[in-house]
């Protein structure tokens, strides 16, 4: 028999057991580049290519990303785990010295070590209690192929830990 629990606890327990891919969202703002790690990235449509993700209302980077016109979505591999941790750490300098990043010709910040990425235009936001759901249309990018990299194991977040699918 399944035990009935308070909904918040049941929700948290269920999603701890639900593996999620990990991505980093970056944007340029009037105060400089911002970045954060998300495990809520989903595909919405293939033609045109649209993605969605949620941003916590408690994050300052979330507020800046929602105001941006364009962003970069980085699809992380297991090898990118340290970058995922950096962008998930409150108060961390995500673009300081020693961090390998560049600006795209259009101005958005991009982490060079992440092989699969897309520049995207924000197309909608929906406020939700404690969060904002964001949709974005992919414009251009790069996808790592197996022939280009021997290490393309996806980074997955499960039970509050990082895992590889490889």
Describe the structure.
- There is one protein chain.
- The protein has 166 residues and is of the alpha+beta class.
- It has one domain: Electron Transport, Fmn-binding Protein, Chain A (Pnp Oxidase, Chain A, Roll).
- The protein has three helices and twelve strands; from the N terminus they run H-E-E-E-E-E-H-E-H-E-E-E-E-E-E.
- The strands form three sheets. A seven-stranded antiparallel beta sheet has the order 3-2-6-9-10-5-4.
- Strand 11 and strand 12 form a beta hairpin.
- The termini are far apart.
- The model has no long low-confidence stretch (mean pLDDT 90).
Key features of this structure:
single chain; alpha+beta; Pnp Oxidase, Chain A; seven-stranded antiparallel beta sheet; three-stranded antiparallel beta sheet; 12 strands; 16% helix; globular; Split_barrel_FMN-bd; Flavin_Rdtase-like_dom; NADH-dep_flavin_reductase; oxidoreductase
List strands and helices in order, with pairings:
Blueprint: H1 7-16, E1 20-21, E2 23-29, E3 32-38, E4 42-46, E5 49-56, H2 60-67, E6 70-75, H3 81-88, E7 101-103, E8 109-111, E9 116-128, E10 131-142, E11 155-158, E12 161-164
Antiparallel strand pairs: 1-11, 2-3, 2-6, 4-5, 5-10, 6-9, 7-8, 9-10, 11-12
């Amino acid at each position: 028999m399944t035990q009935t629990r308070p909904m918040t606890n049941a929700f948290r327990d269920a999603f701890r057991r639900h593996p999620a891919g990990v991505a980093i969202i970056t944007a340029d703002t009037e105060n400089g580049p911002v970045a954060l790690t998300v495990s809520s990235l989903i595909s919405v449509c293939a033609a045109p290519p649209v993605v969605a993700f949620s941003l916590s209302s408690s994050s300052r980077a979330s507020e800046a990303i929602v105001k941006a016109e364009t962003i970069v979505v980085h699809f992380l591999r297991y090898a990118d785990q340290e970058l995922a941790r950096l962008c998930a750490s409150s108060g961390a300098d995500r673009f300081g010295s020693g961090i390998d990043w560049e600006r795209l010709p259009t101005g958005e910040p991009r982490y060079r070590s992440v092989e699969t990425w897309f520049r995207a235009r924000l197309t909608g936001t929906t406020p939700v209690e404690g969060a904002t759901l964001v949709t974005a249309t992919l414009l251009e990018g790069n996808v790592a192929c197996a022939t280009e990299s021997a290490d393309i194991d996806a980074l997955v977040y499960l039970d509050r830990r990082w895992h590889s699918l490889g």
